[in-house]
Amino acid sequence: MTAPLLEVRDLKVYFESERGRAQIVDGVSFSVEQGQALGLAGESGCGKTTTALAVMRLLGQGGQIAGGQILFNGEDVVQFDAERLRRFRWREVAIVFQGALNALNPVQRISNQIMEPMMWHEGLSAREAGLRAQELFELVGIERKRLTQYPHEFSGGMRQRAMIAMALACRPKLLIGDEPTTALDVMVQAQILDKLNQLRRELNLAMILITHDLALLRETCDRVAIMYAGKIAEYGRSDAVFANPQHPYTVKLLGASPDIHGDPEEARRVLTSTIPGHPPDLLDPPPGCRFHPRCELAFAPCHVTEPALITRGPDHVASCHLLENDTHG
Amino acid sequence: MIDVQHATVTGPLELPRRRLAEFWQAYRKNRRGVWGLGALLFLIAAALLSLFLPASFTHTGAVADILQPPNWRHWLGTDELGRDVLALVATGARTSLLIGITASLISVIVGTVIGVSAGYYGGWIDEILMRITDIFLVLPWLVLMLTLAALLGPSLFNIIVVIGLTGWTGTARIVRSQTLSIKERPFVERSVALGAGDLYIIWHHILPNVFSLIFANTVLVIAVTILSETSLSFLGMGDPLRVSWGSMLYHAFDSGAAALGAHWYLLPPGICVVVAVMAFTFVGQALDEVLNPRVKRS
Amino acid sequence: MTFLLSRLPRAIFTIFIILVINFFLFRLMPGANSDRNLVNSPRFSAETKAQLRKTFGLDKPLGTQFLVYLANTARGRLGISFAQKRPVSDIIREKVGPTLLLVGTAEALAIVLGMSLGALAAWRRGTWWDIGAVGFSLTMYSVPTFWLGILMVSMFCVGLRAFPTFGMVVPGEVHASSWLYAMDVIHHMFLPVVTLTLVLLGGYLLIMKESLTGVLAEDYITTARAKGLTDSVILSRHALPNAMLPMVTLIALNLGFLMGGAIEIETVFSWPGLGRLMFESLQSRDFPVLQGIFLIITIMVVLANLLADWLYLVLDPRVKA
Questions:
Q1: Confidence label for B233 from pLDDT (cuts 50, 70 and 90)
Q2: Could you give the ipTM of this predicted complex?
Q3: Buried-most residue among A208, A324, B132, C308 (CB within 10 A)?
């Protein structure tokens, strides 16, 4: 067993405000191997984007890493100094944001934006960087001549692909995609997904995909982590989780969704609407299991102690008190 | 974007006491607004009090009294004609506030008429009115005002008209965008469907919803107008028969007060202008916050 | 090039309107008439008056007058000054330079300082920089420009005797070299420029701060950080080019205010430019000169606006030419 490329151990991200401390991410652990895709799923506000940003230490005003380790090839990113961090970013891990217009600098040509990290990190000349940018565009399937255009001249799908090209500029080992297909129409989504899969195979790229799109999870991700209120509810190989969900939250999510080969729009809508109630206030989370106020199966221990992650299969864990004395799902 | 949801749909003049109390509760939270309001009341009180000053206070004094620094008889000293500076400043408050408020009302009325017409009728009326607005924006306002004042002769009436007719552009723009968004709302469509005439819709639907916006805007316009009047007067185009803060500075400058170090003459009028402008600005901003709540960005 | 083609018609139209306004103001306003405003100075001889009447076509019908006016203006014939009995265009030509020097320097300084301090205030939100900057801007907004000038004169010219109180150079002085001449001008120019800069600074500072604060919250800045770029590179290559756009708009809007400030400052410091000329002409009701100044200053502002429009176009690729 090779060591995983990325291993996150007990990550905690807190946000301090006048009203108190919000525990946005509270003890999250997972790992990603080279060439593997991990899906981070959950309702908005569950902490998935924060976790991903934390891996690159991009939190800024959104919070601070308060504990835990982020081991990339054995080195703890949390301990990196400014210089090491600078060399780490984009070269080893890169990120692709949602394809909205403002994810790319509106007053700079796309070519410059793609060439920038190459020239910065690897000292390439403008000509060399330009050639590589053309290759990248070919890789993602955009005509070369569009390189000199500006972001507002691209359609949503093209912008997303341009951002993927830009992310691959320094040949990172890990690519993080934050909602890469939201805000795109169905046809384009399928294209982007195919492209991502293809790249993963060709480049042996590791990926973390943040999404609330179940279709994406099932089609692209080898493993999946379902997050709720800053904690991991269920985690493991995606076929196992989908076939045999263990956490009541996951059951609800998947149980309510129709066949994934049906309408993906429908699937997406499910995650945000069918579970009654709303996510807890992270400034003052409920005691015990954070899901218990919305859980029909909640019983005595749920109000008092937080459940630990219980093994349910060779690569499948879930945190729920119901599973403690139960040996099969 | 302005949130029209909370604007009133009823007539512009209804203010039951409960609403006034609610308004004050909200307004109180803005510290600068409260300070501004206090300063304004003080200035208005000074202006009103000046009406009761015995005439002798602003009469030319004895030669020995010229340009005296502050002393027991004249708390702020005297000017180059021997007059009491404190009395002059209070009288000046009257003129500056009067011109400030009247000229602003003219600006706002003109601006509202233009803004509503452009927004409501649209089409070529909008085009023409906006072109005119653009041209007015480009013209250097002080040059225009001074020229008009020189041609028409600097009387109180002329100054008010001149300032009023050059300061409407800001109001016109805001009113126009607000009108555009109100025009789309369901209750307007319903009125149109019921056969209501243009003027009816404008008076009963558009204006009441634009009112709170204009109210805050007017106060901010007053701040600018006071500065305009002060500049006009300093450059010699104020009404020569009236004392205003600007004209005081004109005479101070003219008589070499700066060279003579007569700070008691130079500082008070200027400080009053600064305080007045800041006060109106703070009050205007506070009113805007209270009356026109905006959706906060997360 | 395409820019000129699209914007020029509008600029020409605006200038035409200004010419019409100029014509209307000085010849047709109630209480004003061409004779009084152009010709009827007690200091002109009868022959001069007759000559002027002929040049300006004052005895012809209105339509023809307007055409004569346009032709004259195009040729630079703007009338004869009542006070100086010289062609207005000559007088104006002498005064344009000093004014451009004054406003040009002040505006450039205000923009540079405003941008830097505004960027600093945005970068360090909530600290004393931020609060102090906002307070300063608000105060400067409320202070009458000329009053600030008078205070400066009082403090530095009279009180400390560090700077001269008037003029552009020491009157009557013959300078041994151009370097010494330049030094003298700078010595005289220092306070007026500082005053005007302070007044303009506030607005630019605030706009820059607001704009940059907004820009720093955008996703592409996070992307830039994710790329491993240093803060200074992010600021200069990604944040500022976007944050500067509202500045250009403000600069354009401010141009009218700038000329107003020039009039006040030149009056207080007796700086020999168009502003002071305007003040003197107002005092002496020298209408031909007033008409000329109105025209020249207004056209200058229109052209500067055109320049600012072009600058915006260059900086923001989203705007179609």
A1: very high
A2: 0.84
A3: A208
Q: How far is CA A251 from CA A186, A225, B14, B211, C71, in A?
A: 25, 14, 56, 54, 86
Burial of B260 (0-12, 13-18, 19+ CB in 10 A): middle
Asked if C271 and C199 sit in the same domain, the reply is yes
| Count of CB atoms situated within 10 Å of the CB of A310 | 17
Shortest CA gap B264–chain C (Å): 12
SS3 assignment, position B240: coil
Encode pLDDT of A131-157 as tens digits: 999 998 888 888 888 889 999 898 888
Whether B106 and B121 have beta carbons less than 8 Å apart is answered as no
**Pick from A44, A50, A22, A1: nearest CA to A208:** A50
Compare all CA atoms of chain A with the CA of C233 and give the residue at the minimum distance.
A120
* Whether residues C103 and C59 fall in one domain: no
Q: Closest chain B residue to C290 measured between Cα atoms?
A: B147
Query: Cβ contacts of residue B49 below 8 Å, gap of 6+?
Result: B90
CA dist., res. A229 & res. A306, Å (int): 13
Which of A36-50, B175-189, C21-35, C258-272 has the highest average model confidence (pLDDT)?
C258-272
Q: Do chains A and B touch (3 or more CB pairs under 8 A)?
A: no
Rounded to whole angstroms, the Cα distance separating C74 from C52 reads: 17
Going by pLDDT thresholds of 50, 70 and 90, the confidence category of residue C85 is: confident
Alpha helices in C56-87 (DSSP H): 62-74
- Is C26 inside any structural domain? yes
CB spacing of C318 vs A106 below 8 angstroms: yes
**Shared-domain flag, residues C120 and C193:** yes
Provide the number of structural domains found in chain C. Answer: 2
Domains and CATH numbers, chain B: 46-291 (1.10.3720.10)
Residues shown for chain B: 298
Q: Which DSSP string corresponds to A186-224?
A: HHHHHHHHHHHHHHHHHHT-EEEEEES-HHHHHHH-SEE
- pLDDT over threshold 80, residue A322: yes
Backbone angles phi, psi at A227, to 5 degrees: -105, 150
DSSP helix/strand/coil, B194: coil
**Chain C CB contacts of B281 below 8 Å:** 138, 141-142
Asked if residue C230 and residue C141 are part of one domain, the reply reads: yes
Quote the domain boundaries for residue C165. 99-320
Nearest to C31 among B153, B223, B273 (CB): B153
- Looking at the fold, whether C31 and C113 belong to one and the same domain comes out as no
Chain segment C97-134, per-residue pLDDT in tens: 999 999 999 999 999 999 998 888 888 777 777 888 88
DSSP-derived secondary structure letter, A226: E
Same domain, C14 and C119: no
Residue A110 near chain C (CB below 8 Å): no
DSSP classification of residue A141: T
How far off is chain C from A90, nearest CA to CA, in Å?
5
Which pLDDT does position B103 carry in this prediction? 94
